[in-house]
Each structure stands twice: as C-alpha cells, then as structure tokens.
C-alpha cells in the first residue's frame, strides 16, 4: 500500500479525536476527508489524490490543537539534505550559460534549457509565478529546469510532498524550475539557433500541455519528457494561458481557441527560423486543440527553402471533439512523417470532458476509438496516457506511453516494429494496442 493511502486511512481512523480537538471546524475537514476517500475508492490517479491530501494535511498542521496528532500520523521523514536551489527572486542567467543541456555525473542531475513561447500574462519575479494563468502577449525566453535521473521512475514529475515532510525542493529528488529568462524575439531565435547548431542532432521537440497546467509545471514536464526520451536535440515549450484550476475548464476551453494564432506563429518560427532539420510535436489533452486546428492550415504556409519538416506528431489523449478531429485529419494528412494518436478508456480527464460535452472525444478508446486514415491509432488503455510513469496510479504500477514514444521519436520505428504493440482491429479498421 502506498504512503498516500496509509495516511488517508490514518486520518480517517483519527476522525473521532480530531472532532474533539477541532470542534465546530471539524465538519468541513470531515467532508473533505470523505471526499478524498470517495475519490480513492473510485480509483483516482494517485498523484491527484496525493495533491488533494497534501492540501488538507497542510491546513490541519496549521490547526494548533490537531497539529501534533496529524504529525504523528504522517510517514517517517526522510533524511534531510542541503537544498542548493532556492526559490527566491529571479536573477536572469547569462544566455550563454543555459542554452545547452548539462549533466553532473556525480549527482545524476541533468539541467535542461527549455526554450519557451507563451501568451500568459506576466506575474512576479519568482520562477513559480513568473507567468500567470491569464492571457497576455506572446513572449519568448529560456526556462532552466533540473531533472534528477536517479531514484525517479520514467515519466515521474517529482515534487516536494508535505506528507513526507519535504518542505523545500531537493534537486537530487525533484524536477525543479530553477530560472526563467525572458528574451526579445530576435535574441530568442539567435540563441536557439546557436544552441541547436551545437547539438548532437538538429531536431527540436515541441511540447504543448493540456488543461489545468501552470507555466511552472509545463516547463518541468517539458524538461522531464526530454530527459526520459533521451532527446538529443533541443526542447521547446508552448505554454498557453491555462488558468491551472480544475474549476476553470470552460475558461481553458475558450483560451486554447484564442491561443491558436500564437501557437501557429511559434510553430512557424521553429520550422523556418532556427535551422532545425525536423520538428517533432507532443500535444497532451486539451493542448491538442491548438495543434490540430493549426495543422489544418500547414499546407497553406509559405515556408522558406530549407525549412524544417514535421517529423513525429503525437496526439496524446487528445481532448477534442472526435468528429471535429476526423474533419481536420483529412486536411492535414501527409504533412508530417507520421501522426500517432494515443487513446484510452481510463483517462480521467477525457471521461470528465465527455461528461461535459456529451459527444465522444478523439482520445477515447472502447466503442468510440478513433481510426482515421493517415494516423496511427494506439489503444493505450493498459498504460498511462497522462504522461506520468510508475507509482502514480491507484490501480498499481503501469507503463507510460513515454516508453513507446522513445521508440517512435528516437528510433523512428513504425507501430508493427515496436515490441510493446500488437495489431488489433481488422483490415478495414486497423489499429494497435499494448500487449498485456
């Protein structure tokens, strides 16, 4: 049993004592605790459950009468380590110092420069809040992210946990956004072009995040994916202005549509101005709406001679209307080396989206599984489509689609050449699924 579930059960067991200690404050805590228990009972992703439990525990620890009781219910703290990354105000680094990945063999920590474009509004001067969940002008820069390669599962986006008494980020254990350095457009292009010219490969990987994602988590995720894929080129992030709030789904829907022209400009920049050979794209969840709507217009672009081509384009659990995807797929067919769609019947975000919209989503599996000409469809219901890896699921250990993405992007293998996949469907409706 995971530490998260142990702590949840321990707090439920302490209910009578907490009620005595907290008096009239207890009902609100009780209802939240029961809500978390219900979510666990329905098999909610363990990472989401842990975040909800973290927030509850943090508030309980602030309640003087109950703090000691709650503290004793928490797992034993790990040995403390010196924290070498501090989340203070940003001192913008020299561009020349962060445009190339670096690795410390002694600590196993890799530092990745994430070249970003974003239309988020400006926040304060701390990395975590440098950009807000509100709309702004298109801006560019480099985010510096450290990623531990030891003690972290493939796909795992590690963060400090209150319930483990981790009160600050540790670069040996956690994926950390260290700095955010804004750049005017022409300096951004020059810096990225110079960095790419010095890379082992002249390919770039563009990541587009989904619903309910902050700039900080988007940058961390982009770097983590780059490290886990062992990507030898340069990593780019397009971070649209998600509100990063589960209650703001319809706001995010409106914003991703508003953001399309900005994403299109960013993708054109990557294809035509930085000297790239190929541009690979991974779009997750709602981020696929900007990607798919942009791909519709790719064939009309007037790119210069020598521009990069689209390589592997990946639709990961796309939260877009299934019928709309079919319409647009006919228009962008053939404009990339390969299109791959990962679908799932167990992706919580997709199930929630279908509940809201009524119509099937393009990322659904089961009876609504989408098979369309020119796109390789993979039923990934047996693995994790949330782009996280092991130990993040209430259901138990699961593989991540990142395993298959490695063979797709780095090895350029077709579905029938990838060991984890097996052919499914029939001659008229052929797709692939994961081996059990």
Describe the protein's architecture and organization.
- There is one protein chain.
- With 436 residues, the chain is of the alpha/beta class.
- Helices cover 36% and strands 22% of the residues.
- It contains 14 helices and twelve strands.
- It has helices at 3-13, 15-22, 26-41, 46-61, 64-73, 95-98, 185-197, 215-228, 249-258, 260-272, 287-295, 322-332, 348-357, 401-410, and strands at residues 102-104, 109-122, 131-148, 176-183, 203-208, 234-239, 278-284, 309-316, 336-343, 376-379, 421-426, 429-434.
- Strands 1, 2, 3, 4, 5, 6, 7, 8, 9, 10, 11 and 12 form a twelve-stranded mixed β-sheet that branches.
- α8 links the parallel β5 and β6.
- α1 (3-13) packs across α3 (26-41), α3 (26-41) runs antiparallel to α4 and α10 (260-272) packs across α11 (287-295).
- The longest helix has 16 residues, at 26-41.
- The radius of gyration is 22 Å and the shape is globular.
List its traits.
436 residues; alpha/beta; twelve-stranded mixed beta sheet; 12 strands
Give the helix/strand layout:
Blueprint: H1 3-13, H2 15-22, H3 26-41, H4 46-61, H5 64-73, H6 95-98, E1 102-104, E2 109-122, E3 131-148, E4 176-183, H7 185-197, E5 203-208, H8 215-228, E6 234-239, H9 249-258, H10 260-272, E7 278-284, H11 287-295, E8 309-316, H12 322-332, E9 336-343, H13 348-357, E10 376-379, H14 401-410, E11 421-426, E12 429-434
Parallel strand pairs: 2-6, 5-6, 5-7, 7-8, 8-9, 9-10, 10-12
Antiparallel strand pairs: 1-2, 2-3, 3-4, 11-12
Helix pairs in contact: 1-3, 3-4, 10-11
């Amino acid at each position: 049993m995971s530490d998260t579930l142990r702590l949840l059960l321990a707090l439920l067991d302490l209910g009578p004592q907490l009620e005595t200690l907290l008096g009239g404050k207890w009902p609100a805590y009780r209802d939240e605790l029961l809500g978390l228990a219900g979510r666990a009972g329905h098999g909610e992703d363990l990472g989401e459950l842990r975040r909800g439990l973290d927030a509850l525990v943090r508030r309980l620890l602030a309640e003087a009468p109950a703090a000691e009781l709650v503290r004793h219910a928490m797992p034993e703290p790990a040995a403390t380590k010196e924290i070498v990354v501090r989340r203070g105000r940003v001192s913008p680094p020299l561009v020349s110092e962060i445009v190339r990945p670096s690795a410390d063999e002694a600590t196993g920590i890799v530092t990745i420069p994430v070249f970003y474009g974003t239309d988020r509004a400006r926040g304060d001067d701390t990395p975590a809040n440098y950009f807000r969940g509100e709309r702004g002008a298109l801006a560019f820069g480099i985010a510096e992210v450290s990623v531990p390669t030891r003690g972290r599962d493939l796909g795992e986006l590690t963060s400090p946990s209150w319930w483990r008494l981790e009160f600050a980020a540790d670069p040996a254990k956690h994926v950390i956004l260290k700095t955010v350095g804004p750049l005017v457009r022409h300096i951004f292009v020059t810096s990225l072009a110079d960095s790419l010219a010095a890379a082992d490969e002249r390919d770039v990987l563009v990541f587009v995040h989904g619903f309910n994602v902050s700039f900080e988590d988007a940058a961390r995720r982009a770097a983590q994916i780059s490290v886990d894929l062992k990507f030898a080129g340069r990593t780019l992030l397009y971070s649209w202005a998600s509100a990063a709030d589960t209650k703001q789904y319809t706001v995010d829907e409106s914003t991703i549509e508003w953001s399309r022209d900005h994403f299109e400009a960013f993708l054109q920049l990557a294809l035509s101005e930085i000297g790239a050979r190929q541009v690979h794209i991974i779009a997750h969840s709602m981020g696929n709406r900007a990607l798919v709507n942009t791909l519709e217009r790719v064939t009309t672009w007037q790119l210069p001679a020598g521009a990069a081509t689209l390589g592997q384009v990946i639709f990961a659990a796309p939260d877009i209307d299934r019928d709309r995807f079919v319409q647009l797929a006919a228009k962008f067919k053939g404009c990339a080396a390969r299109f791959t769609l990962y679908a799932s019947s167990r992706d919580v975000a997709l199930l929630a989206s279908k509940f809201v919209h009524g119509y099937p989503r393009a990322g659904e599996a089961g009876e609504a599984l989408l098979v369309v000409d020119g796109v390789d469809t993979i039923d990934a219901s047996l693995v994790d489509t949330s782009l996280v890896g092991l130990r993040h699921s209430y259901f138990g250990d699961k593989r991540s689609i990142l395993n298959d993405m490695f063979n797709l992007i780095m090895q350029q293998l077709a579905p029938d050449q990838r060991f984890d996949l097996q052919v499914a469907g029939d001659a008229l409706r052929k797709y692939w699924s994961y081996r059990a």
